Amino acid sequence: MPEAGTASNPAMKSHSTAKLRRSGFLGRMCQLFRMRNAMPCVGLVVLGGCLTFIVAPDEGPTLETRLDSALNPAFATVVIDPGHGGIDEGARGNGLQEKDLTLDLALRVEKLLGAFNFPTILTRRDDTYVPLSERAAIANKIDNAIFLSIHFNHSHDSAATGVETFYATAKVPPESAWTWIGFFNKPEPASTDVGEDLAGYIQTSLVTRTDAANRGIKARELYVVRHTRCPAVLVEGGFINNPLDARLIANTEYRDRLAKAIAEGVMTYQKTRPRPAKPPEKLAQTAH
Length: 288
Hints:
This protein is of the alpha/beta class. The chain folds into 2 domains: 15-56; 59-272, Aminopeptidase (3-Layer(aba) Sandwich). It has 9 helices and 8 strands. Strands 4-1-5-8-6-7 form a 6-stranded mixed sheet, sandwiched between helices. A two-stranded antiparallel sheet has the order 2-3. A hairpin with a 2-residue loop joins strand 2 and strand 3. Helix 6 runs antiparallel to helix 9. The termini are far apart.
């Protein structure tokens, strides 16, 4: 039964009926809109969540690695080699150019290793062309070194994805200078460490930190890893011509992940290396 004084008023009855009609129409429109757009919205939310998870910043090297690096002063000099440069552009795809990405990632790795007191040298710091022989020669001038060449991949198959790390099949000793001293000296023996362990530590860290497809470690006859006396690896950080890989590689936070993984792999490998013999201290001369 309607309340007194309401149903008997024609003006109020007409206003209420019109209001209900408008409400019903708007309700049906909202319901229709929700039905038509429910799945696309859900899809965007899920995709956004996945990408956020993949590229979200993660923590740096573990506490154990930090402590060990602080306690071990006998660090190897890490020669970081940004692949390509200058007239050698490297791979291109999806608006990306390899020579730019390798330099960016190399600088990130240098910064991280420097924070843990690792001496570092870059084979190039700008968009210049450096021959492969000069890159290897830089590392060969250093007694205690690790050589790290950074690249990004390209394949005829745009579905190819993932990260991989290469090491030398065997070392090629550097050419000795032809001097009268060098003529009588025996050539230095080639390093027995072809970089397989270093590749393994870096690859494990890359897969752990990025969730990228694991393409493994592989022995290849690549110039820069074969012609360096020290342990040397070549890292491929993803496929530029793969649309999903390219979106990740273009993200600065993802490149931070790559840098942290590479640096952590180097630090872990450093723990396994025997410390070089400490040179005998010179006796202090007493003034008379």
